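Good morning,

Attaching, inline, the C-alpha cells for the sequence recovery test we're adding to the shared suite. The designed sequence is right after.
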C-alpha cells in the first residue's frame, strides 16, 4: 500500500485531492429525478465530489452531484449538477456538451488533518462537511466511469410550448482514471434545506456516509452523443433550477 501522498510544488493545485462522499438513499427518490431513457441502477447511491482543479488552466472549485443510473443497460451515474465558482466555464460547458454547470460558492480546504467543505447557492448553504483525514487506502486499479448528461435546447418562445430547437439527447461521458493517492476521512456530512439545491429534501441520507480523499493521477475523457430521448416524455424535465438538473417545479424555485 502506498502511504505517501503525491509531491507537488508549493501552491500548485494540479494534484489537490477530491473529497468523495457517498451514501445510500431511497431508490424511489432517485427514480423520480431520472428523465425518460435513464433507468435506476442496481445500487441507489448518491455521489458527491468536492474539488479544486484547474479547468482548463485556472482554478475551479466545485461540487459534483450524481446518482447511480443506467442507460441502455450500461451502468453509470446521472449528473444532477456541477456547482462551480468559475463563471467562464459554465455556459460553454452547458451549451456544447450539456454539462449541468451553474454558479455556486465553494469553500474547500485541508488544514493539517482537518478537512472542511461548504457549498452555498443564492444565499443558502446546502452542504457542509467537517472531518479528519486518517488512514491511507489501497489504490483502486485504473478504472472507467460513465456519467450521463442531457443536451437539450427548448424552443424559442413561451415556456409552455413544449418544442425544441435541439431535442433532448443523452450524452455519454466516459472517463478512465488512475489513482495517485487514496485516504479515509472520518467526519460528518450535513445537508441543509435549500430551494435552489434540494438535495436534503429529494435525496435524503439513509446510510452511513463514506468519505475519502482521492487524488487522480491521470484521466482520459471521451464525450459523445449516446442517443435521443422521447421529446414529449422529457417535457416535465425541461424546467430546471439554474443550470442544474434539479427540477424547477419540485422542491425549488421555477427556473434560475
Amino acid at each position: 500500500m502506498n502511504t505517501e501522498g503525491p509531491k507537488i510544488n508549493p501552491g500548485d493545485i494540479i494534484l489537490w485531492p477530491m473529497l468523495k462522499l457517498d451514501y445510500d438513499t431511497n431508490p424511489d427518490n432517485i427514480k423520480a429525478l431520472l428523465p425518460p431513457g435513464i433507468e435506476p441502477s442496481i445500487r441507489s447511491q448518491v455521489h458527491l465530489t468536492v474539488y479544486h482543479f484547474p479547468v482548463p488552466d485556472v482554478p475551479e472549485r466545485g461540487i459534483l452531484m450524481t446518482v447511480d443510473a443506467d442507460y441502455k443497460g450500461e451502468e453509470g451515474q446521472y449528473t444532477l449538477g456541477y456547482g462551480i465558482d468559475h463563471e467562464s466555464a459554465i455556459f460553454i460547458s452547458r451549451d456544447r456538451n450539456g454539462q449541468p454547470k451553474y454558479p455556486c460558492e465553494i469553500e474547500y480546504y485541508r488544514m493539517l488533518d482537518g478537512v472542511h467543505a461548504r457549498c452555498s447557492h443564492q444565499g443558502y448553504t446546502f452542504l457542509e462537511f467537517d472531518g479528519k483525514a486518517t488512514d491511507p487506502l489501497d489504490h483502486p486499479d485504473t478504472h472507467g466511469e460513465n456519467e450521463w448528461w442531457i443536451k437539450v435546447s427548448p424552443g424559442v418562445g413561451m415556456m409552455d410550448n413544449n418544442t425544441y430547437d435541439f431535442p433532448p439527447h443523452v450524452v455519454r461521458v466516459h472517463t478512465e482514471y488512475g489513482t495517485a493517492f487514496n485516504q479515509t476521512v472520518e467526519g460528518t456530512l450535513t445537508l441543509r434545506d435549500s430551494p435552489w439545491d434540494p438535495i436534503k429534501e429529494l435525496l435524503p441520507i439513509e446510510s452511513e456516509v463514506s468519505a475519502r480523499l482521492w487524488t487522480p493521477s491521470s484521466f482520459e475523457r471521451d464525450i459523445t452523443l449516446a442517443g435521443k430521448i422521447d421529446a414529449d416524455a422529457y417535457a416535465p424535465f425541461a424546467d430546471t433550477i439554474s443550470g442544474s438538473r434539479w427540477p424547477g417545479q419540485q422542491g425549488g424555485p421555477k427556473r434560475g
